[in-house]
Each structure stands twice: as structure tokens, then as C-alpha cells.
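Bug #77: duplicate submission created two jobs. Keeping one. Sequence:
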Amino acid sequence: MTVVINTVGSGSHKKVTGKGGGSSSGSGGSGGELYKKREPIYPKLVHGRWRTIKWLVLVATLGVYYLLRGVRWDRAPNAPNQAVLVDFTHARFYFFFIQLWPQEVYYFTGLLVVAALALFLVTALFGRLWCGYACPQTVSTDLFIVVERLFEGDRNARIRLDAAPWSFDKFWRKGGKHFVWLLIAVATGGAWVFYFDDAPTLMKNLFAGTAPMTAYISAAILTLTTYSLAGGMREQVCTYMCPWPRIQGAMLDEHSLQVTYRVDRGEPRGAHKKDASWEGRGDCVDCKQCVVACPMGIDIRDGAQLECINCALCIDACDEIMGKVGRPAGLIAFDTVAAVLAREVGQKPQYKFVRSRTLYYGIALALVSGIMLNGLMTRSSVAIDVIRDRNPTFIRLSDGEIRNGYTLKLMNRSNSGTTYKIDFVGPAGARVKAVGAESGAGALSVDLGPDGQRSLQVFVTAPIGDDQPHSVPAKFVIHSPAGSAEKKTVFLSGDEGR
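Kept job's structure:
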């Protein structure tokens, strides 16, 4: 019996042969195993423009992640002064001068939509730049590899160390590496929980053993995931666990810039001797430096592959070799499928950055971003929610008037106290009273402190004639020095069949 297995992302097939109904085994595996055991990847350190950019992005992203929690921001006297804080206790999200309440969850939805559209647009234009430079898995793995090189050396030294028998030298190098990995993982998990409580206070409580159990559990889970994913699984996360490699194929086309081996220039490949002629052959000397530099362990010369994260380290490796053999750089470069095909037939390549899909993504991104920005700029610091009493829906008083009950939830989103004037607009002659609030001239007066909220029980009484409809449109309007807001509701005035 022969089973054909399509290997993930490579486009190749493996044949697994067994007899009768027995188990089958994969290439390189023992009997009964279907898949081959993971082979460790030892990426070689390269130097060049793209490696430098990756270093800068790594420092910037980790710097923001680790240090942003310590930035302070002055707010109201009783409000937290941490610049970025998800305050579950008081149901607030703080981001510098922006303060969002639970009722404004649509801003988070809009932010996710903006992030998705931006990712779609960047992918359609430049391929998987997010994966190669800014993805947390990529950044963490890069940092872990730096530590690995410090203890074990570069590619060849690490291969020799893994193949060598256990000794004191191997033990302290491996042990030191894993110890530093664990420290980084702990710092990563700890940095995350500090965004959910005041960072200095939580840090003190964590070391004192008085922090909430959820903080310890969350930090432990994030420590474990960082250590295992960046230290042990690495490229397997991108290839097998992350859904984005499969999704991004729908955003790419023949005009998307991706890390590309320029077949028209490189083939036929082969070894090259010094002072030999380049006539009748390609520039690729088959040194495989692009392969040993790849953190995903693929050969970019095989074409576009699911595993490729567009980190461009193979470009730096190849450019270095091209310089040594006296050939122009750019045998591997950011290029498009359309450009490579055009050069193969002797045509001048054309790069189309503006095309239907990039227009769709760009317009959608601009539209959603504009809506979000307009909402934030015109956002009022006062807000009101209205819940009409359901039981009973209305009460007919002895004098024939109808009374409805409402619960108002008032919110002051500013950093200073204010006084709300509340008006009711509805049936003619309606009178408003509230529990614990002053009323006068048909309006209620309510004081509310900075960043405060208050629930108010309100009763509206109105003379309703027989010619009035069952449901009368109405609304509550609030005014304050900080702004105004309104909320629509209804005033029920009798039986529905009236």
C-alpha cells in the first residue's frame, strides 16, 4: 500500500509504503510513525541592511513592550496615572489622554478592523513583512537566538555542540542558555500583567506574595508559552500553528513584492572557480548560504513557499557572496512574480502598487480610520443610558394621569466635576421627579464628580387624553459645561389596543 503525503507548504510529496493493514512509517522515522521528527534549524548570523533593520525593529518593539508600562500620565486626582492601563476593577481603558468606558467597546472593534485592514494592505503590497519583522513570535525567537549564540556560538559551533557527548562545557552552555531564556520569558509574562494594574504597586505585591492569584497564573502561562514557543518550537509555530500563512495567500498576487530568487539571473547554477568565465551560466554559485541563514530552514530558490516569512536574511547572505565573487548584488531580492516572468522573456518589468485589491484595502482602511478618528475627536465627555421600567410598564394614578419609571445612568468622562441639567422631552405637560436629585423648572439637577457615574431613579408623570397613542416618542437630554448628550426612549400611556 502506498500513501502520498503532501508536505506542508513545500509542494512536494512523500511516499510512505507499508504492507497489508500494518502501520506505515515516514522518512527518517521508526516503525509506526507517520511524520518525521523535527530537525533542528541552526540559522547562521548574517550582516547587512535587512539584518540591521531587524535589529532596530526588535529593539523598538521590545522597548515599547517592556518600558511603556512605566510611563506616567496626569489625570484626575482619583484616577490612575499609568499612561496605558486596562483597569478591570473600575471598567476603564486608559491610553494617554484617551479614556474608554465599557459602553464604548465599538472603539476596540474599530481598532481591530483598522489593524486587520492595515495588515491586508501591507501584505498585498510587500508580502509577509509583519511575520518577518514585527510578529511577537519572530521578535521573541530572534532574541532567544541571540542568547543561544552568546552561549553556544554561531551555526557550526552549535551543530558541533549538539553532536558532542555531554560534558561540563556542554552542560554549562546549555544550562546557561535555558536559564537566560527563562529569565526573558518571566520578564515577558510579567510585563504583560503590568498593563492590567498599576505597575509599581503590582511589582511590589508580586515579590511580596500579596498579588492576586490571577496575576501569578497569567504571568506563569505567558512565561511558559514564551519559553516553549520561542525557545523550542520556533519555526513550527509559523508553519503549523499560525493561521496567517494560509490566509495571506488570498492577499497576494503576481504583483506583490516578496523575497524572490531571480531565476532569470541565477540559472543555471553551479560552483564557480576563480577567474573562470561567467559566460553561459547563472550567477548562483550554489553556496547554500541563503539556506543556512534562513530561520525557517527553507531554500528560497525553490520559489514562493508557505514557510517563508519575508525576513530577507537570505538577501543579506546572498549579497555578501555576490560581493566576494564579483557579481552584482540582488540575486535574491524583494521582487514580484510578474517582474521575474517579464525578464525571462526579455521584457522590462513593471511594478503595479496601485491595483484593485490595494485600492479596496486602502479605501476601506482610510474610511474606517476616518470614522474612528472623527468619533474620538467629536466624543462628548458626558453620556447617558436610559432603561425604562418593565414591571409595571406604566401606572395610572387616581387623577387619571400616567406615570412611567426610568433608570438613568449618568457618566462624566472628564477629569473635573460638573453639574448635569436633565430635561425630559415627550408628552405635553410631563413632570419629572427623581430620587435624590433636585428638580425645578421641569429639569433635574445632578452633581457628578470627575470620572464618575451615577444611577438615578426617575419618574415621569403626564396627563394623557384618550386620543393619545399607546407609545409616545420621548428622550432625555443632559446639559453640562463639558458638553451635552441625549438618549431616546418612549413614554407608554395606556393599553396597546387603545
